[in-house]
Design a protein that fits this description.
Layout: H1 5-17, E1 40-41, E2 51-52, H2 56-60, E3 68-73, E4 80-86, E5 95-100, E6 103-109, E7 121-125, E8 129-139, E9 151-159, E10 162-173
Antiparallel strand pairs: 1-10, 2-5, 3-4, 3-10, 4-5, 5-6, 6-7, 7-8, 8-9, 9-10
């Protein structure tokens, strides 16, 4: 019996190795890792961008201070990779944040509008790091009605000659 046990497992191991690409887990089924799985990076001389999720405790000491906010996440259930908040009806700039190499970096929204136009995407910068969210699709029509519907989007983070592009989900609201 002990000698036949490895022989019984051989067909199972071969079957696992021969799975087609469509049977492999998709990137959205796996949790986001630093630099976020499924991201693509450009060539360049500067250090790679190691993007981390932002946790509530990352902003507890210095909240962003807006009334309403937006966030970009790698998948529907992940912690956000970018958070931004602004004041409704204000011309003051909204503030965003990303976490690179374990350090939270605050970014100012480009343009002079607060929360108002962030739901369609926005660009942020701090002079060193640039972040841009582009909404690539409408809210899921099959999803339950929500004040902050989840839309498909693309996040581009650039620092120096490097950039990272991540497809994910973007939502704005309370």
């Amino acid at each position: 019996m002990i000698r036949t046990f490895p022989l019984l497992l051989a067909p199972l191991m071969l079957a696992a190795c021969n799975q087609s690409a469509s049977e492999q887990p998709s990137p959205s089924d796996t949790p986001a890792a630093p630099v976020a799985s499924g991201a693509s990076m450009s060539d360049g001389q500067s250090a790679p961008i190691m993007l981390d999720t932002i946790l509530p405790e990352d902003l507890a000491a210095e909240p962003l201070g807006g009334e309403l906010g937006c966030s970009f996440s790698f998948s529907r259930n992940d912690e956000p990779l970018l958070i931004a908040e602004g004041v409704v009806g204000s011309q003051s700039q909204a503030i965003g944040a990303v976490k690179i190499d374990g350090t939270v970096m605050r970014l100012t929204k480009e343009g002079k509008a607060g929360f108002g136009d962030m739901s369609d995407g926005a660009s942020f910068t701090n002079g060193t790091v640039n972040a841009r969210v582009e909404v690539t699709g409408e809210a899921d029509p099959g999803a339950a009605p929500s004040e902050s519907p989840l839309k498909t989007a693309r996040l581009t983070i650039a620092r120096g000659t490097r950039q990272i592009v991540i497809d994910g989900f973007y939502a704005c609201g309370p």
